[in-house]
Design a protein that fits this description.
single chain, about 600 residues, mainly beta, 4 domains, eight-stranded mixed beta barrel, seven-stranded mixed beta sheet, elongated
């Protein structure tokens, strides 16, 4: 568990059995009890064992193990050899022995009777974690059981989820007795004074026949009003006893530890201002900024790096207050970030709008309920595009999720301005050559016959409409350094199920895209490549480029892609994966410009 504090890392393997929140509650008990118990002392040289070479150096030993280099003192400076021997400065080889590990083990017998029901079992659980890790560190076997259970079927070796669950169910109304202890001593072959055997329970266990020679851990619950703690007395054989007071976690966590400590708590997500999880993104109207939408309701505008080695400046961020929902966002080269949010029946603009007298705050309202921009749950916020008239008044437009185009008029004398619908079937909106442009979908004519899509150029007067010979209407504005349409730049419009049309200054070029491939943008890569469209493979990971030349693969994402956007202001497109990774890809250098991965959450 990488999120454990450093002091708990020695028990990470055992604590990883539990959900992280309970592991952090149990961790302080484990650390304190480990200090009280101490380590399992390794066998020394006096205990024998098969010799196994040497293991380092020592300042003591017989002279037959004195280092050869030390004997030089006898030849060159005998008095110095005598002095070094007197002050313990000589170095000797330290012998190593192979210990009989198979005969070494830690045994733990826990009382599950009425004396230890309830909160004392939380201390038992922490002790199992400590003693399991303690035995593992010394290379000893670890055996544990409940005193009231059957020695034939209820012996556990090691610590895992099934054995802990079985221990939790082994509650008994029968107090631990000498017969229980005798049966376990016989079944486990415990000698009168076993090396490392522990009795865990109430102080009365010390009075049982057969408890002699066993180390004990006595767990008691103070009988005081309002007390929420346990007292644990560690009484090892032949060592000084130690006492530890454990302040218990909140009652809800105590119940989880005693019933099922492995069940993860179901948490309803509540997003706060600290939650910066990325839920969506898009490019600004001019394609030069990337707009990042976060789960806490904030919107950030970040400059797109100009190369894979460039440093990304800190994004400009606007935090929308509680009770407001982001509807649209945009970026102006002069004026910065704008965020439109709905508050009740009004629309609040965060950021300032340009007027002939300077920048001002503004609100908007819908003329009727039918003309109200909406954002369905889970939908991506819309794009705001801007245009400043020669007189210094700023006009804004947005396309809502239903494809309706709205005008946000310049600020006049009133502080609340009306939202005016402009078009009802818009498939794409962008800022091209400092002018807002859009593409309309074909609409049924008066005779029921379909008409073709249209290109609209916005400004202070009525939109200028140009027919486009495409009969589907789905459209993308794309990047092209030259040879693009005079009003729309590089424009790709769907004509039929598999055919897209690219509109250039020299005319129209058809592009065929195979079935199930989803077009996500249009671009003109470096020469000699012809302009074409970028499409996502049905595997939801691989991006391909289709033009009048042979199709080619561009790049593959590391996980399923949930959102894609391509810039029409530079040869860059980006994607957001299911895992929350955001990647910007440079089509010129065929390299990753920017990559952001989600932060690890508990």
């Amino acid at each position: 568990m990488t999120s454990l504090p450093p002091v708990l890392r020695p028990w990470a393997a055992q604590l990883s059995l539990f959900p992280e929140d309970l592991a952090l509650q149990l961790g302080p008990f484990v650390a304190r009890l480990s200090v009280a118990l101490g380590g399992l002392r390794p066998r020394g040289e006096a205990e024998g064992g098969e010799p196994q070479g040497y293991d380092g150096l020592s300042r003591r030993g017989p002279f037959e193990r004195l280092l050869v280099s030390e004997w030089l003192w006898a030849l060159e400076a005998p008095d110095e050899l005598v002095r070094r021997a007197a002050f313990g400065e000589l170095s000797f080889l330290k012998p190593a022995f192979r210990q009989p590990r198979g005969a070494r083990r830690t045994v733990v017998l826990l009382d599950a009777g009425p004396d230890q029901l309830g909160l004392p079992r939380i201390a038992h659980l922490a002790l199992l974690v400590v003693l399991s890790r303690r035995a593992e560190a010394a290379g000893a076997a670890f055996t544990w059981a409940v005193l009231q259970s059957s020695p034939r079927s209820d012996t556990h070796t090691g610590l895992d989820v099934p054995s802990i669950l079985k221990w939790l169910e082994a509650r008994s109304l029968e107090p631990a007795s000498a017969q229980h202890l005798a049966a376990w001593r016989e079944a486990l072959g415990l000698q009168p004074s076993p090396e490392d055997a522990w009795l865990v329970g109430a102080p009365r266990l010390s009075r049982l026949a057969g408890a002699e020679g066993l180390s004990r851990v006595e767990v008691t619950e103070p009988m005081e009003p309002g007390a929420h703690r346990l007292t644990v007395d560690v009484r090892p054989v032949a060592r000084v006893a130690r006492s530890v007071v454990l302040e218990l976690p909140p009652p809800d966590d105590c119940v989880r530890l005693l019933r099922n400590p492995f069940e993860r708590r179901a948490v309803t997500p509540v997003w706060t201002h600290k939650d910066r999880r990325l839920v969506g993104f898009g490019f600004s109207g001019d394609g030069r900024r990337i707009l990042l939408h976060h789960a806490d309701g904030s919107v950030a505008a970040m400059a797109v790096p100009h190369s894979p080695r460039a440093t990304v400046p800190k994004p400009r961020r606007i935090q929308v207050p509680g009770g407001q929902r982001v509807l649209a966002a945009g970026w102006r080269y002069s004026g910065g970030l704008l965020v439109l949010a709905r508050q009740g029946n009004d629309y609040v603009m965060h950021g300032q709008v340009r007027t002939p007298e300077g920048f001002r705050k503004v609100r908007y309202h819908a003329l009727s309920e039918a003309d109200r921009p909406e954002l369905p749950p889970g939908a991506q916020p819309s794009l705001l595009v801007s245009w400043v008239a020669p007189r210094g008044e700023e006009f804004l437009w947005l396309k809502d999720a239903q494809g309706r185009l709205f005008l946000l008029p310049p600020l006049r004398q009133e502080t609340v301005q009306p939202l005016t619908p402009v078009e009802v079937k818009v498939s794409a909106l962008a800022e091209v050559r400092s002018r807002p442009v859009y593409v309309t979908r074909p609409q049924a004519g008066g005779t029921g016959r379909s008409i073709i899509a249209r290109l609209g150029v916005l400004g202070e007067a009525e939109p200028q409409l140009t027919p486009l010979n495409a009969r589907s209407g789905e459209a993308y504005f794309g990047y092209s350094p030259s040879g693009a349409h005079p009003d729309a730049g590089l424009l790709a419009v769907r004509h039929s199920e598999h055919v897209w049309k690219l509109f250039l200054d020299t005319g129209m070029t058809p592009i065929t895209v195979p079935e199930q491939f989803r077009v996500v943008g249009a671009v003109q890569p470096p020469a000699p490549s012809l302009p074409g469209v970028v499409a996502l493979d049905p595997d939801l990971r691989t991006f391909h480029f289709f033009s009048q030349h042979e199709p080619r693969t561009l790049v593959a994402a590391t996980d399923d892609v949930v959102q894609v956007a391509a810039s029409h202001g530079q040869p860059v497109f980006g994607w957001l994966t299911k895992a929350g990774e955001l990647v910007l890809w440079d089509l010129m250098e065929q390299a990753v410009l920017y990559r952001a991965v989600p932060e690890a959450t508990p």
